[in-house]
């Protein structure tokens, strides 16, 4: 369970950085160059990783990530209870904690997957901060 908590926090942080970068593309040419392979026709290693995450899993992940982020930020919830609540939130969203962590690890390396999760998060009302 301890590794789940650490991974969830890291995923939320990674996603917040990735979502912020997508919202502010005018910062420089590098973000535009990174986004091009994700939407271009050129196959890449990241495209293969995205293919292993279904659209349903992207939606489930976005739902779980929003819930995990909310639990993680809830100062009223004792730390000892947060782990169980986060695992329950992930399971309620339709993923196992292991699959949630796996998708989260792919997210940090895959701009196309980041874009899909960002779109799913926006459809649900916003990204974690």
From TrEMBL:
Leader sequence residues: 1-18
Region (Disordered): 22-51
A matching Pfam family: DUF4168
Keywords: Signal
InterPro entries in alphabetical order: DUF4168
Top-level taxon: Bacteria
Domain DUF4168: from-to ranges: 80-117
Protein name per the record: DUF4168 domain-containing protein
């Amino acid at each position: 369970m301890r590794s789940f908590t650490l991974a969830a926090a890291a995923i939320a942080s990674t996603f917040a950085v990735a979502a912020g970068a997508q919202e502010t593309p005018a910062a420089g040419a590098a973000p535009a160059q990174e986004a091009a392979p994700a939407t271009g026709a050129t196959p890449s290693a990241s495209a293969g990783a995205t293919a292993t995450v279904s659209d349903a899993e992207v939606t489930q992940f976005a739902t779980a990530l929003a819930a995990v982020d909310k639990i993680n930020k809830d100062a009223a919830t004792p730390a000892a209870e947060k782990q169980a609540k986060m695992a329950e939130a992930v399971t309620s969203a339709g993923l196992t904690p292991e699959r949630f962590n796996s998708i989260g690890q792919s997210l940090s390396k895959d701009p196309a997957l980041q874009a899909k999760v960002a779109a799913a998060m926006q459809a649900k009302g916003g990204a974690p901060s």
